[in-house]
Amino acid sequence: MAAYTVHPTAIVDDGAQIGDDTRVWHWVHICSQARIGARCSFGQNVFVGNDVIIGDNVKVQNNVSIYDAVTLEDDVFCGPSMVFTNVNNPRSHVSRKNEYRRTVVKRGATIGANATVVCGHTVGEYAFIGAGAVVTRDVLPYALMVGTPAKRIGWMCQCGERLPDSIDQHACSVCGQRYDIGGNHCAPL
């Protein structure tokens, strides 16, 4: 007996691995070779492909398709209608399944509503991709990315708050976590 919850309208293909306490809501389709951790939540109209690995405590909001060659590590948040791709130059009349480019979203990262992550890139730990942003290159850990193409405009705390921009203050004003911040890096102390 499954230790996860599946809405009657959802389709979970035989062979899919789903961890305990995961919730699969309305009109979700999870393919047979998908590997999903514990305590995840898949909102309405989500698709999860075969060559997909999802860690624990991942939240996928409504209308997200997680195509083959995508890995989401623990504690990732995918906002409503955000998009993953898996081929850089798709054509309907040319099969490119052997050209899929792997995308990895590292632990604790957030991808905002309607953002797009172009395939073949890594989104670093606890990075924050703003709503509507288009990720076209690797994203540094803790980076706050916005725009099209996405550019770093600051750094984010693990708790989800923007870190101060001041040169001498590198502590989160909400949780107090301190960070070592330099030109192209941000790491908790």
UniProtKB/TrEMBL annotation:
Q: Which family is this protein grouped under?
A: Belongs to the transferase hexapeptide repeat family.
Gene3D superfamilies recorded: Hexapeptide repeat proteins
Kindly give the PANTHER family that the UniProt entry links to this protein.
Answer: ACETYLTRANSFERASE, ACYL-[ACYL-CARRIER-PROTEIN]--UDP-N-ACETYLGLUCOSAMINE O-ACYLTRANSFERASE
InterPro entries assigned to the protein according to its UniProt record, in alphabetical order: Hexapep (IPR001451), Trans_hexapeptide_repeat (IPR050179), Trimer_LpxA-like_sf (IPR011004)
Residues passing through the membrane, by range: none
What is the top-level taxon of the source organism? Answer: Bacteria
Which organism is this protein's natural source? Vogesella alkaliphila
Name of the coding gene: wbpD
Q: What is this protein called?
A: UDP-2-acetamido-3-amino-2, 3-dideoxy-D-glucuronate N-acetyltransferase
